What we know:
The complex is a heterodimer of chains A (312) and B (324). Chain A has 312 residues and is mainly α.
Amino acid sequence: MSDDPGAASAADAGPGGRAPPPAGAPSTGWRLTARRFARNRLAVVGLVVFLAVTLAVTLAGLSPHDPDRTNLRERFAPPSLTHPFGTDDLGRDTLTRVLYGGRISLLVGFLSMGFSIAVGTVVGGLAGYAGGWLDSLLMRFTDLFLSLPSLFVLIVLSTMLADSPFARAYGGTLMIVLIIGALSWMVVARIVRSSVLSIREQAFVEAARANGASHARLMVRHVLPNALGPIFVQATLQVAVAIIAESGLSYLGFGIQPPTATWGNMLKDAQTYLTRMPWLAVFPGVMIFLTVMSVNAIGDGLRDAFDPRKAL
Amino acid sequence: MIRYVVRRLLESVPLLIVVSALVFALLQASPGSPLAQLERDPTITQADLERIARERGLLDPAPVQYARWVAGALRGDFGRSMQTGRAVTTEILERLPNTAVLVLTAFVFTLLVAIPVGVLSAVRQYSPFDHTVTTLAFMGQSIPIFWLGLMLILVFYFALSNPFTGGPLFPPGGMATTGMEHSWTNRAWHLVLPVVMLSSTWVAWYTRFLRASMLEVLGQDYVRTARAKGLSERRVVYRHALRNAALPLVTLIALDLPMVFSGALFTETIFSWPGMGRLFFQSALRRDYPVLMAIVMFTSVLIVIANLLADVAYAYIDPRIRYE
């Protein structure tokens, strides 16, 4: 991808290609968007918090404790200097587990987002660009998925697959990523479709077509780069959705299985000792809350930054 | 209008057929046979099992079985629970009223809080009140509700105690204290924490939504006209602005309605509330697929109906919307 896809596609369009930016799409380039984003205090705080969380979980290996090693002499220790978040019923250090768990939660968040964005962009892009019967077919397919109760279907799928080798690969991470992604691409598809519908009518697309650009080139070079704004916003929000979905499933026991720590399954373990060792329930939950909130703040900030009608 | 409703109803038929086929395929693919209970019985021989399977049509080709399943489902017969051996429909009907009480209470509570707060927040945009509301609503949208439930129990059951009785301020779960099922106050007392947990996200969404909608409407010409006529601010806000701003809220409400029947899985699980959500959770733990699939199917139908209802209601109350 070039540094400035908006400008590149306009230049490609040849004579008369400098069309006014389409309504509702990012106006002029990424630098402007970044400037508008930087003016949103909440979004910037969200970005800082999110980067801090990411940095912390990346550096989890620096912890002097092993996340999975049990130490029966140090069970049920309340927060202290050696164990800032305390220890659990098996004497494992909660802070270390929270950090390692965060790796899984963030990984699942990003991979599921990638999956749902890929499916949603292909489905929505094809539907919007091709129109006609393909559009109707793809949109009925989207409606079908939208009419499934997603939490219920997530649970059914993960119980059904629980004994398969698929579920055991990478501690169940792969399975969770795929089922969360498979049930969360529909909103993306609808949004991409509606952006593509308005972009494909623009003069610069017409000009490129007149210049003999193929369908694939029109789609990839001209239409999609101009739909990136809404896709980016959705991508951010999808990360939050996936993190909540993973931790919710793992909390219920249908997600990633112990001993692999995730914020969700730590909460599940914590509720047995809720009144005796509240710290076990407090910290993983705070991490989910902080991460999801920061991602949502970034998403809101991006949405406003991409929206040319919004005064900032 | 009637033609539109009929057309939409007809359109949802193929959707429901595909959804039901999908659900049935999942049910067929699920591990464990519907005769699992009988298989465990040592007095039943292999020959008996085969005979029973043939009698119940389990050896028929899949499309035939599907047709039979649909015919049964249309009559409200979803087969038997693999765990209890009782009819799935009976199990569901037992839980429905409990779920309805919880979700409807939370719903009413949500509207009672979200509407005035959203309106006030919009009318006093950028005031300290508005800032507090937007911040809280933003947090409410991001909070993992299962964690909120645990924290509510920690604070209101464990940490705080009732100054009069010395007991816990609120119970940690259940619908009523055993032996006090007929006491309304006892039941209401048990409702408080689950309702707070369930409403938190809803209140956040609805408040944010109504605030944005109000802000848009307050900038409209007809609001300026109403002010110019010399109407009181109260009348302008509640008669002219709110009525229009609340229109999109109707869609939101219609789309959330299926929850009244499908239940609140996390809330019911955490607070041991014997509703549909908990039935689903327990059935999933026990791999009771007939129950799971009946609930999935039932909820899908409700979602399709809710979508239809949302569009029709919107068309009905907003004369600007015309359906051909």
